[in-house]
């Protein structure tokens, strides 16, 4: 059976280098192939061609449509050349990171549809927190990022800064299913061996302390991981982000979107709050079937 791949989604934005670097680091650590994906979405451009003036005569309309068709053909060829250039630069970069070869994929269509199509063959997705539109706005996340996270059932690493070789990771632990999945994944995967794992629970009522102790024991018993436990009080996203900074955390692991869209609309999504405020890359988990172990 073929090994599942790490998939890096790149668009040529400022975070594309970080996406490549984190994806290469993961692929090398768990010894799986690396696939680089760039998508070309023609939706907005083709939609514009339908906005024609009813005041034009038949001959004028036909001539205009022909000119627009020629222009779209030129623009399409330019987007393909640009996409190939982005993929080649990314391929050269991951080779420098120690990857012998990458699988380059230029896909037409929406990114969400492409990721869903590849999902069965992927061990983990690596995405940038912001694409070209928001690349200069550190207080924003990509317009389609939430939709991608909700649509996929594989671990997703969201890169939000230049690559730094992870030495210290943090599991945002609350005793729930996703948190237990995170503990199992860290304990069983070669990706995390040799790292320091901070197991951090922010609990206003103090009911998760026994579960925290059990999770710490599970990680320690796996071997190859140094475990640090912390039980904090306060507003969850604030305390987790403060802990990231004070303990020099390199990657934070947490569950994603455990509530319905209606709940998130009414009270706000914890996942989105963390995406906006985190100072480290986030590795997001959805459900039990998202946990992929490689050895």
Task: Report on the architecture of this protein.
The structure is a single chain. The chain has 295 residues and is an alpha/beta fold. It folds into 2 domains: 5-43 and 79-146, HUPs (Rossmann fold), CATH 3.40.50; 164-290, Rossmann fold, CATH 3.40.50.620. The chain is 43% helix and 19% strand. The two termini are 13 Å apart. The model is unreliable at 44-50 and 259-268 (pLDDT under 50).
Overall structural domain count: 2
| Tally of DSSP helical segments | 10
Q: What's the CATH architecture name of the largest domain?
A: 3-Layer(aba) Sandwich
For the biggest sheet, the summary is: 10 strands, mixed
Overall geometric form: elongated
Based on DSSP secondary structure assignment, what is the total number of beta strands? 10
Mean pLDDT: 83
SSE string, helix = H, strand = E?
EHEHHEHEHEEHEHEHEHHE
């Amino acid at each position: 059976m073929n090994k599942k791949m790490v998939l890096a989604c790149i668009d040529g934005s400022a975070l594309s280098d970080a996406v490549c670097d984190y994806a290469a680091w993961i692929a090398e650590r768990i010894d799986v192939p690396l696939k680089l994906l760039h998508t070309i979405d023609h939706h907005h451009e083709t939609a514009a061609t339908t906005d024609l003036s009813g005041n034009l005569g038949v001959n004028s309309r036909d001539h205009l449509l022909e000119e627009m068709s020629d222009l779209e053909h030129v623009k399409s060829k330019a987007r393909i050349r640009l996409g190939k250039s982005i993929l080649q630069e990314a391929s050269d970069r991951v080779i420098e990171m120690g990857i012998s070869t990458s699988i380059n994929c230029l896909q037409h269509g929406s990114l969400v549809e492409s990721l869903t199509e590849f999902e069965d063959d992927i061990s983990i997705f690596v995405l940038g927190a912001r694409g070209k539109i928001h690349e200069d706005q550190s207080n924003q996340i990509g317009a389609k990022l939430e939709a991608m996270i909700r649509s996929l059932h594989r671990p997703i690493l969201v890169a939000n800064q230049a690559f730094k070789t992870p030495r210290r990771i943090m599991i945002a632990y609350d005793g729930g299913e996703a948190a237990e999945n995170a503990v199992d994944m860290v304990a069983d995967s070669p990706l995390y061996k040799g790292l320091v794992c901070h197991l951090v629970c922010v609990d206003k009522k103090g009911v998760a302390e026994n579960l925290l102790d059990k999770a710490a024991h599970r990680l320690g018993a796996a071997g190859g991981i140094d475990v640090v436990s912390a039980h904090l009080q306060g507003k969850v996203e604030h305390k987790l982000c403060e802990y990231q900074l004070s303990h020099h955390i390199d990657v934070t692991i947490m569950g994603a979107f455990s509530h319905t869209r209606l709940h998130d609309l009414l009270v706000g999504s914890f996942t989105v709050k963390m995406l906006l405020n985190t100072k480290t890359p986030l590795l997001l988990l959805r459900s039990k079937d998202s946990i992929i172990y490689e050895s």
